[in-house]
């Protein structure tokens, strides 16, 4: 399957240069030149990676990346002329997967894109039993589609990415609710109950185990 890259870059010549190199590398490429329409585009289309400029007309890349992370785990590479360490850390802290400073080699960008996509694929949490599609927020068990909410999908992904590891409720809250909202342990327990119920409808064995006084873990038989 051809993977789709979205380039969000207001300098049209640079966007065209990246577009040409990515096309030659075998990707399908789309370009946007301002920040205002990015979120609607991402919600309406399947995209495998976003090259996102930090400084854009209409809406800056930091705001865009933060909002994307509220509903999608699609890989994001920040592309910017800002070279200060604090700017790079800001991009990574809000969920960017990599950071490229201008000026850059287009070949390096293509290499970074391929590396991030490989890493994203390896971290998808898919196993022989469980298949996760982070772009569509879909999970299947032995081919059976689970109808999950975004929070339930994130919970399952976190647990399945490291089978056997015990996650406390606090750790799950921190990873799922990055906006620092106040969420109680009971909220996590409620989501886990619903997730278990949906899994039990298509699979007999329990996959999410409670660890007394510690939290939850994913165990695939």
* Approximate shape: elongated
Order of helices and strands: EHEHEHEHEHEEEHHHEE
Please describe the biggest sheet, giving its number of strands, its sense, and whether it closes into a barrel.
5 strands, parallel
**Order of strands in the sheet with the most strands?**
2-1-3-4-5
Number of strands: 10
Q: How many structural domains can be distinguished in the coordinates? A: 2
Q: What is the residue-averaged pLDDT?
A: 84
Instruction: Catalogue the unreliable spans.
Output: none
- Counting helices, strands and paired strands, the structural category is alpha/beta
Distance between the termini: 30 Å
Percentage beta strand: 15-25%
Question: What fraction, in percent, of the residue positions are helical?
Answer: 40-55%
- What's the architecture of the largest domain, going by CATH? 3-Layer(aba) Sandwich
Q: Provide the CATH topology of the largest domain.
A: Rossmann fold
Q: What does this protein look like?
A:
- The protein is α/β, with parallel strands linked by helices and 221 residues long.
- The protein has two domains: 4-122, 3-Layer(aba) Sandwich (Rossmann fold), CATH 3.40.50; 130-218, Arc Repressor Mutant, subunit A.
- Helices cover 41% and strands 19% of the residues.
- The strands form three sheets. It has a five-stranded parallel beta sheet, with helices on both faces. Strands 6-7-8 form a three-stranded antiparallel beta sheet, with helices on one face.
- β6 and β7 form a beta hairpin.
- The chain is elongated, with a radius of gyration of 19 Å.
- The mean pLDDT is 84.
